[in-house]
Amino acid sequence: MPARIEDVAAHAGVSTKTVSRVLNGVPSVRAKLRARIEASIRALSYVPNASARSLAGNRSHLVALLYDNPMAGSSYTMELIVGVLQACKGTPYNAVLHPFDAGEDLAARIDGFVAQHRPDALVLVPPHANNAKLLQRLDELDIPYSTISSKLRQSRIDVGFDERRAAAEIVGHLVSLGHRRIGHIAGLQGHGARTWRLSGYRDALRKAGVAYDESLVVEGDFAFASGVAGARALLDRRRPPTAIFAANDDMACGVMREAYDRGLAIPADLSVCGFDGTPVSQLISPGLTTVHQPCRELGCLAAESVLRSIRDPAGPQQARVPYQVLLRASTAAPGKP
Amino acid sequence: MPARIEDVAAHAGVSTKTVSRVLNGVPSVRAKLRARIEASIRALSYVPNASARSLAGNRSHLVALLYDNPMAGSSYTMELIVGVLQACKGTPYNAVLHPFDAGEDLAARIDGFVAQHRPDALVLVPPHANNAKLLQRLDELDIPYSTISSKLRQSRIDVGFDERRAAAEIVGHLVSLGHRRIGHIAGLQGHGARTWRLSGYRDALRKAGVAYDESLVVEGDFAFASGVAGARALLDRRRPPTAIFAANDDMACGVMREAYDRGLAIPADLSVCGFDGTPVSQLISPGLTTVHQPCRELGCLAAESVLRSIRDPAGPQQARVPYQVLLRASTAAPGKP
DNA sequence: TTTTATGTTGACAGCGCTGGTACTTTTGAC
DNA sequence: GTCAAAAGTACCAGCGCTGTCAACATAAAA
Fold it and tell me: What's the CA–C1' distance between B55 and C9, in Å?
């Protein structure tokens, strides 16, 4: 049977209330006494019972990460989770993970989840982060939350990175290599990521003085197969692009597959770049030029920010974390036409 | 403020205890009354407070998944998590995730974790699943646990799949294509997976009547770079292998990278196969022949088994789930020598 | 019919902790 | 030495639920 607060109090010769004060970081405990109590805590390997604490204190010390039902191998979600857990380390907070698929009764299911676990804060991942109804419900419930890459102003605390600028930068790299006919496979309609990346693509072309050719942009849905299809469409053109910027790495892999099937060499015959910096981008050959999305940092920062806002509620915060453009072997100057 | 059990009791005109019985599936409640109470629960959108439940009932309704600090993009862990969460769905149980790095005081940290959250059951992932000391400690604490692919007999409930047979099968495929000089890049020393996959490789050779050549087996550590290095070593031989079986997909990608750098065509000049069936195996070109490790099913089954064992403690169980050999384009008959 | 066994329900204490109130002791400033 | 503020104690209620056990209802057996 693990030690209880009462045992610690007896061991240190103080009242349980004082131990409780130490546990909760209440300042009005003299350093010397605090040290003695902390010693007793260690001596007895005391760890407060989370349930009792949560029940009595009306604080659960829980941060809930609400994400969509991840598709197979979503390293994005995994990385976010790792980041959130990292942020909790060293704090009294713990993370609860909960996948929610975006169904009609989402708000109701969230209500149930909140009633059950009473998280002190929530971290929302796209697409939930972009669900206005959901955010409104959370505002009603008055639970602090942060969002990752929300495109909604409604979200008070949001962390993300400048996808548009990142996309512009990577396309700018293609331009600087000499590419002028650059295809783009866009992301799924309705996703913020689609819009930002597409905007960045256009920004880069504009900056380079290259006319925007709508027919060089084909639809995708972030999945491998749509990358294959998109590449097929682009490469079947009378004048195919010399480079393709796919809105994520999986689709970029699709482009590489289509190139492989056609016997096109990358980057000699076609330059390819992706977005996200998923593990596959370095495993594939040639290595994929891409933008590394700092998932771990995002998760960590989102959790930290929302936890901070519990102590002192602040106004809206929009944090942007730095990204990295990874130049690898899938891009090169265009071959002779 | 969410509804409490007392509200439900009042709404249904019964005592709180009876509501509690319904919530906990105690059979001695008449069907009619049960239905009425269930209606009240729905009417009030009542969800029991997890903390109160856990405190009073001395059961947390929590399954803890203890995994190693995942390296970047460990889709293995992610898939397991998804499987465990899936198993919890529809049960009153929830999952807590906790990464533990394998340090000296691991057992102590686990103790602390257990004291804090009081999980009703644990699911252990390798390498923790193979940590005899840890299992012993859990036995002492008398907490039910299940392991995924533990090689230890000590583990009472273990789920896994027959890695040895799977490895033999995929190497057998290479043999049937006509390969005789088949290289192997082994996994990290000390991992069960290394041993089983290597054994399977040898089994397949033996069965085919091909003499085992120790020099065709090189060391790896499951990481991409070691796959590159392993391939380099194998391909530098006077008579290089016509096929390479890497102990996991990441290393197989490393082999493909080395082949790419040398201008070797896959599968024309070299057949490659991996193990695990990670997402990268289908994103890469050519598609990688591999064994799909049923992670999700493993996680799900591990959680289900251990939850079942809470109700009726049973003897040791060793469940094996089916795997799948995915034949893709990275393997073909050896080219003319 | 009464008795006994069994099934069904309720009253109440208490899980381990924190919040609050009321009170005592210590500390430091003057 | 006085006095106010700070630091600490003592005590109790109560968070929302479940376990225990007793009470009652019903059905089976005598």
Answer: 24
Q: Cβ contacts (< 8 Å) between B250 and chain A: which residues? A: 283
pLDDT tens per residue, range A95-123:
888 888 877 788 888 888 888 888 999 99
Number of Cβ pairs < 8 A linking chain A and chain B: 141
Closest CA to A197 of A160, A243, A165: A165
Tokens of B260: 């790419």
Alpha-carbon separation of residue A91 from A97, A304, B4, B167, B278 (angstroms): 17, 10, 30, 44, 34
Q: Is residue A213 part of a domain?
A: yes
Average pLDDT by stretches of 10, chain B with 337 residues: 87 90 86 89 90 88 84 70 85 83 80 85 85 85 86 78 95 97 94 92 96 96 96 97 97 97 96 94 96 92 89 78 95 80
Nearest to B285 among A72, A260, A282 (CB): A260
Whose C1' is closest to the CA of B4: which nucleotide?
D16
- Alpha carbon distance, N-terminus to C-terminus of chain A: 77
Cα(A144)–Cα(A123) distance, rounded to whole angstroms?
9
Chain C nucleotides close to protein (CB under 7 A) are 7-12, 14-21
CATH number at residue B204: 3.40.50.2300
Q: Which amino acid is residue B170, in one-letter code?
A: I
* Per-residue pLDDT, A283: 95
Please tell me the distance from the alpha carbon of residue A90 to that of residue A253, in angstroms, as a whole number: 39
Q: Which domain holds residue A308?
A: 62-160+295-321
- Quick one: tokens of B159? 């789920």
**Strand-strand pairing, A145-148 and A157-160:** parallel
Q: How far is CA A223 from CA A247, A289, B85, in A?
A: 10, 18, 24
- Measure the CA–CA gap between A209 and B135, rounded to whole angstroms: 65
How far is A281 from chain B, CA to nearest CA, in Å?
Answer: 9
Pair (A95, A26) in one structural domain = no
Largest CA distance in chain A: 86
With respect to residue B330, please indicate whether it lies within any of the assigned structural domains.
no
A232 and A114 in a single domain? The answer is no
Q: Strand D: list positions under 7 Å from protein Cβ.
A: 6-12, 14-20
For residue B259, give the nearest of B205, B188, B178, B331 by alpha carbon.
Answer: B331
Give the number of domains in chain A. 3
Do residue B115 and residue B150 come from a single domain? yes
Is the CB of A10 within 7 Å of strand D?
Answer: no
A24 CA – C20 C1', rounded, Å: 16
Residues in contact with B117: Cβ distance below 8 Å, sequence separation at least 6, in sequence order = A50, A94, B60, B62, B64, B96
pTM: 0.85
Both A228 and A300 in a single domain?
A: no
Burial class (CB in 10 A: 0-12, 13-18, 19+), B66: buried
- For CA atoms B287, B288, B289, B295, give the dihedral sign: negative
Cβ pair A45:B115 closer than 8 A = yes
For residue B337, being part of any structural domain is answered with no
B57 contacts B20 by C-beta, under 8 angstroms: no
Rg of the Cα atoms in chain B: 25
State the sign of the Cα–Cα–Cα–Cα dihedral B141, B144, B149, B152: positive
